[in-house]
Amino acid sequence: MEKRLVSQEEKTLALHKEGLGVEELNVLAVETERLKEAQLAEDSIEAKATIPKLNLGDIDRLEAELPIRVCPLSDYTPNGGDGVVLNHDLHTNGILYTDIAFDYSAIPQDDLVLLPLFSRMLLECGTNTLSEEELHQLINTETGGIGISYKNGLKYTHDAIIAGTPDESLLHLVIRGKSTSEKVPKLFDIIHEIMSNAKLDNQKRFVEMLKETKAAKESGVINSGHSYAATRLASKFSYLGYLSENTAGLTYINNLSALLELAESDWGSVLTRLENLRTTIYNNKQVDGRADVDPKYVVNLTGSPAILESNLTKMAVGSFCAQIPTSSSSSGDRAVDTRSIRSWTPTPDEPTSATSASGTMEGYVIPSQVNYVVKGGRLLQPGDIVGAQSQSQSQSTDPEGVVRVGAFSVVSKLISTSYLWDHVRVVGGAYGSSCSFGSASGRFMFSSYRDPNILATLDAYDNTVEFLDNSLKMTALGSHPDQHQGEHTGTAGDVVGGTGLGMVIDNDIISQYVIGSIGDLDSPSSPDQKGYTSMGEYMRGETNAHKQQYRDEVITTNIDDFHSFNYKLKKMVKESNTNSNNNSNIVNAIILGSENAFSKANEKLKNENVQEMKLEQAIHVKSPQE
Length: 626
What we know:
Blueprint: H1 2-18, H2 22-40, H3 45-49, E1 69-72, E2 83-89, E3 95-103, H4 115-124, H5 132-142, E4 146-154, E5 169-180, H6 184-197, H7 203-223, H8 225-234, H9 239-248, H10 250-265, H11 267-282, E6 297-303, H12 305-308, H13 311-322, E7 357-358, E8 361-365, E9 372-378, H14 387-393, H15 405-426, E10 432-437, E11 443-449, H16 455-462, H17 464-477, H18 485-489, H19 493-496, H20 507-521, H21 527-540, H22 544-555, H23 559-581, E12 589-593, H24 595-607, E13 615-617
Parallel strand pairs: 2-6, 8-12, 8-13
Antiparallel strand pairs: 1-2, 3-5, 3-6, 4-5, 7-8, 9-11, 9-12, 10-11
Helix pairs in contact: 6-13, 7-8, 7-10, 8-9, 9-10, 10-11, 15-20, 15-22, 17-23
């Protein structure tokens, strides 16, 4: 289908070109160049001055503190237990919001593929005493809704970048619900019924869910390829990335076919694994291998003081927690099961796929006429000192030593909305492009959305270094593009080289991106969102002082932070290109794209004596003979 459409389009364009005279072709070429110049032209100072804007004095410099009280289970049930209760005193119009998080880090690696379907089974198959319809009706009449999701994150380390190993990661299944104050006991009764008695033996419903999931995910690859590419690239660097790839990424999608076969031919083995998941997660079996997990579960409550302190709420929470098995009889010093997902170890020097790794790129063919191009790596290395410690240990002349992750987020925002917008979206024709920086992991990633290009986009990513180099030179000279038009367009190579990259990053520009970054931090949140956010901060060990430090780094971003960021980015790009030239198996680019686009890209690589990308179908479809 794609080949036929491309062929028709090429014939149409060729016929149109044949009908044009030499003069018409020259006019078209000139107009094209003028368009590119207009697309890359910097707005004048006068034009920018007409846009209403905030200044740094308009933003709050203090981080808003979310209310939280940590209560031991002994406040709710005389026997205590392995959990903890968090209270958030917020006005909720008589509603109690609850989030109950269970650690799932001891489940077997082979059962990762079951996790998304397991959570659906809990809610969509009824229980031992209630049919599917009866359970849905009960939830709808007695509560404001109940849902299940997975919350993964990293333990907080405010002064150093972490590697993201299993021991540094937090993995929780979270069941969320809400009800009016008088219905709180019913809410917790229903949650207990779901977690302990959900019918997991409905083979027909499981197979239906599996087919639905497979179809939806395969469609998602075509429409949201950038997300799948980013997930796959993250799996090369971190444990959480590995988990996401195996529960939501390309690996997950392609494992669903085997799971479907197994569910239809050997349902008994699948049912046993589903039951073991429930036992491991809800019945605290996981503490055999996770003596470091404390608490084993968290009950998060958000509501007004009257609801949180009512006897009805305390009795409901106490009764629920009393029914969760404790780990008092478990041995906390047992070795971690080698089949557990905790046994994962990173292997960056080995290709994840024997057929798809080519230098530093993996290419996946999708039935689409557009591409999704993602590239990234470690801007900061595990163990790198950041924040105030970084500043105290560095010299002012050594940009490598000064790392302020809050300021780096501002630099990342500027790159996304200026350079990438102009060169990948406007000129390159992609529907969208951005970059992101992980303040905890130190990873930096570029991505494009519905992109007609592959190699040109990868070149644009690498040229970010040149953009920053030129911009820093222009800023040091105090030059604005309107004052040095030749420098901005690239005709004066002594300042910015020959690519036309660069902008003056003055204090006014920095201030606008600081305000934008603060806007991201201060986006409006409902009371239940605030309570959920606070629970995550508690579990990570992130305090308000840590958040204030990050906010201070954002607000005080200066030109030195751009130098520091650029220094790190140069090292990352150089390492990437060195790996590519040496045919290393360290993957730092994932592309999902059309067969035609890959064919053209490989032809160009071949002409440049660069090893071609080896391709793999993003979605494996079995032939009738298999």
